[in-house]
């Protein structure tokens, strides 16, 4: 084959499809290539990409095909490429370089989460109206934008997300939903809105805790009061058979929360699967004020756990100086 004819029919680098992270490059090849011949008789193409800082080219592809897509590029960036052709005759030629720019990165889940994190209602509207983003896209911690807005108390953002289809009952991998998070962080207006949109009071996380457990752990009295008025069972148990009152004894020692729960009917002598009572746990955690509240509200210090030990014996064993606690 005449080398001059080969050069006329091969090469001519052109740009194909372009996205925000890739550029497709295509070129021509002589029509009479015989693929039954040995590879040494095929026309070889080497694609090179320019390093603008060093003004040098680096090989990024070598082969016999006439199409290659350069991946992992930066959005809104211009790149330059050139094609080197080697014919079976051994002759080589560089064709004129071509430049192409990647597109602007489309709106995605990161834009949605950033708008929520900044409590930027206008940006949140813009992203949601693009119809290019999944409204329940999770972040690295498995929180959806709605969950993040709920935790921040970004009420208008919560409303926007729900109007655009956010699932109020969607859960994280650990089973937490938006209502539980709103209860823990104490955003009563968000709790009320979520409930009006169908958020479930009976939903449980991976440990069997419901919204009332989370509200008790968060220590927010208005939220607790609202949940109990809304129908939450005051002595609801999680997988460890802990009631919200037990959660207070385990985690916070909050006397105001304990008093509210007891006034609402919480059993001060409730026992978990190991026989522990809220009083025993309060003693072990040295929550003196909580111990006093529990005793004043009828806690029995002589109840025994499964090991046959009562709160008085625990106080002595752990040297807890709790007044009024005697056998």
UniProtKB/TrEMBL annotation:
Domain Fibronectin type-III: from-to ranges: 9-105
InterPro entries registered for this protein in UniProt: Ankyrin_rpt, Ankyrin_rpt-contain_sf, FN3_dom, FN3_sf, Ig-like_fold
One Gene Ontology cellular component: nucleus
Key word Lipoprotein present: no
Domain of life: Eukaryota
Gene Ontology annotations of biological process type: regulation of apoptotic process
Zinc-finger as UniProt keyword: no
Keywords: ANK repeat
ANK-type repeats, residues: 141-173, 174-206, 207-239, 274-306
Annotated protein name in UniProt: Fibronectin type 3 and ankyrin repeat domains 1 protein-like
Lineage: Eukaryota, Metazoa, Chordata, Craniata, Vertebrata
Gene for this chain: fank1
